[in-house]
Amino acid sequence: MRICEFALPLFPLASSPTMTKYILVSGGVISGIGKGVIASSTGLLLKSYGLRVTAIKIDPYLNIDAGTLSPLDHGEVFVLDDGGEVDLDLGNYERFLDVTLTRDNNITTGKVYRQVIEKERRGDYLGKTVQVVPHITDAIQDWVERVASVAVDASGQAPDVCIVELGGTVGDIESAPFVEAMRQFQFRVGHDNFALIHVSLVPVVGSVGEQKTKPTQASIRDLRGAGLSPDVIACRSSKPLAEGVKEKISMFCHVSPEQVLAVHDCSSVYHVPLLMEQQGLLRVFEKRLKLRELLEARMAREGADVVQHEAKALWAKWHQLTTRQVRLHDTVSIALVGKYTDLHDSYISVTKSLEHAALSVNRKLQILWVEASDLELSTKESNPIKYHECWRRLCAAQGILVPGGFGERGTEGKIMAAKWARENKIPYLGICLGMQVAVIEFARHVVGLPEAHSEEFAPKSPDQVIMYMPEITKEQLGGTMRLGSRASVFDDSHLQQAKNGNPSVIQALYGNEPMVLERHRHRYEVNPAYIDKIEAKGLYFVGKDETGQRMEVVELPSAVHPFYVGAQYHPEYKTRPLKPSPPFLGLVLASAGLLGEWKKQNMQQGKMSPSVVPLGRYNSELDLKALADK
């Protein structure tokens, strides 16, 4: 295993305070070419170097936040601990960097203009004419500088480096104020504290597959025309750059060859940090931003051994992750039953959670996408081929997952999927709406309430087993749901007292913690009036909020079903490549037939050989000891 050569430079320690370094990631030619992954990968490399890293995403749209955007229009809405509804790229940052961000880490045009207009209304500008320059641009710079100093991990220490991703492409009208703000910002913080990565597309044209550099040249020209010069040009392409293309970009874009990175399509996004490290990205930034001074300061504060071990262990685990991804042959298939399946980015945190869980148990993930509405009888009449094809995929899956969503379309299809999983003992995980449809299905077909439904979809139903939360307003949509990190308290006493009962499997997956904190995003919940009826028939609510009134986790006994779990919260928002989310880990273990082995390992914890890598983890104790000894 090759450890990142820059993880542990040997030099005298210093304790002088240093200024935060900023790396701006901009894009050209087209949007959606991977700026978020490149920004996250850069941050990961800096962490493997030994620095603390935070990240900011700038979205030039006028929305205050992403909460009211359709997933089909903008991809998934990612939810943070503080309840912020933000762009999905912040999910990439949290997963790659293992940090906890806030709503302020996502800047939008709407937020900035609202802040400036509120100041103007209060009279803060003392009668001056409020303009884009300097008032909007100053507000953007102040925002970036303030957020960059906020701690994002358990250490409570301010970050050493802040990655700032500018959404869209350079030259867009809506991003012009942000580009100008960053042009000014480079002088505010100083040359040694500001660097720029420009991500551009190198398209392949013609039958011979020639790679064209003109779009990149034009993009760099636009960037320089706006007053910014790239320190690194990340060239996105479908295949590795041909010989001479890198030199051509270097020559015509006025940068050295080592400042041109070829970032071609990889088998997974987890290989991108390795690809960038191999091409010397850290060497460029070590020289350009004087990173050694930052590392010296941190090692002086926290101890060289601690920083070195942390950096080495991170890079070693990441290598193990990518090696598994390439070498795995055994697969596990999960049917994802949703209503936004036309755009897979709508469920990016869900798919990443499944991927992380599968890799941690040495399985290659196969997602079978199932459009929920195509499972319904109306599709059988209008398009029988599509209907039978969707049911074929559902029936072929080793496990079934129903994620969250809003709106009535596809609800009956999701209920049918939950029924199929329950009756045929197929491992099932329901998230948010997925838990609610599992409760509705059980109420209809087991409890004996054929008209059971949700107030969201059938407000006149006599048995609304899912109801609108009383404290939530119905007048305004944006930012009015039950959002952010909330406590779920486990109590499996009813489950254990049941006939053929057992301790909660989902609680065991969480390490038998009495309480967990997970992120929420919902307006509806299980109606407490039906809890006793449902539990009397064998579906148990093993997790509740701190008041005991709000149902958070539902579970069938192991004697009845191998794995049938629903969670009102969204565990996918806290998954990490090296630390899979427990509910997703449980689904994948059960689907792969490994849950029994995992339980056995869990019971023998502390008694296993130190050379054994337990299911769901990456390094054995001997691996980490060897790293520390090195």
TrEMBL record:
Enzyme category, top tier: ligase
GO molecular function: ATP binding; CTP synthase activity; identical protein binding
Catalytic activity, as annotated: UTP + L-glutamine + ATP + H2O = CTP + L-glutamate + ADP + phosphate + 2 H(+)
Domain CTP synthase N-terminal: 21-291
Keywords: ATP-binding, Glutamine amidotransferase, Ligase, Nucleotide-binding, Pyrimidine biosynthesis
Residue ranges of domain Glutamine amidotransferase in the record: 343-587
Pfam families: CTP_synth_N, GATase
Segments crossing the lipid bilayer: none
Pathway per the UniProt entry: Pyrimidine metabolism; CTP biosynthesis via de novo pathway; CTP from UDP: step 2/2
One GO biological process term: 'de novo' CTP biosynthetic process
Endpoints of the signal sequence: none
Any single Gene Ontology cellular-component annotation: cytoplasm
EC number: 6.3.4.2
Role played: Catalyzes the ATP-dependent amination of UTP to CTP with either L-glutamine or ammonia as the source of nitrogen.
Assigned protein family: Belongs to the CTP synthase family.
The protein's name: CTP synthase
Organism: Allomyces macrogynus (strain ATCC 38327)
